[in-house]
Amino acid sequence: MKPDRQEKVDRILRAAAVVLAEKGYENATIKDIAAAAHVNWGLLHYYFKNKEDLVVKTLRYASDAAFTPTLGLFSEGRSKEEIVDNAIELLKRTYRDNPGFYKLLFEMWCASGRSKKIKAELVDCVNRVIESLRTELEKISSSAVPTAPTATAAAAIPGASFADIPHEESTGIAGLLLAMSNGLAFQLILDPQKLEDEKTWQPFRVAALVLLGGDVNEANSSNNNKKKKNDKP
């Protein structure tokens, strides 16, 4: 696709994501999206087969834009506790930078009950994110220090004591992490003030650590220390 054509298509998809998040699938029109993208509405009929085709491509575009740049950061922690903290920071960042994405996601979930094509794309988006998370989990498992037989190995990664995540379990764990993240995002849509409330994130932190086999006691201790520090005048 030519650069100038691709730029127009991307602009339309970005505008469509905003309009669909605000108005929903049924209420958003081609003309609404064209106006938001500052293009002639006839151009949308040229680039997309119909409204449903535009919505399907918008969902893929928005999903890739929200998740692709951040998933690799998930596994940068040196312990499972740090990895979970990274995941929480990524969720916070995604919501701060692009709160409309989660609104779009839930609008598409509603629309998927009435459109087979949207449902198929939504399922594919979810599966691609789960697969990416699974890959990151297996990177963590393969690069981690195993439950160490010696003090030297145990000290190689502070707080680690990693147990390998079995391949057959990693997809299920990834799916549960995504489900928890989406559930939390739904709460934030209803009450955005929860974003900065540590009480919102601590149950997620504990549940994620249980899934990854991390040290929940260490997580609670770390969180209590953080809370005391934040509470100091």
TrEMBL record:
Residues 29-48 bind DNA. Keywords: DNA-binding. It comes from the Archaea. Residues 6-66 form the HTH tetR-type domain. This is Transcriptional regulator. It holds the Pfam family TetR_N. GO terms for molecular function: DNA binding. The keyword Membrane does not apply.
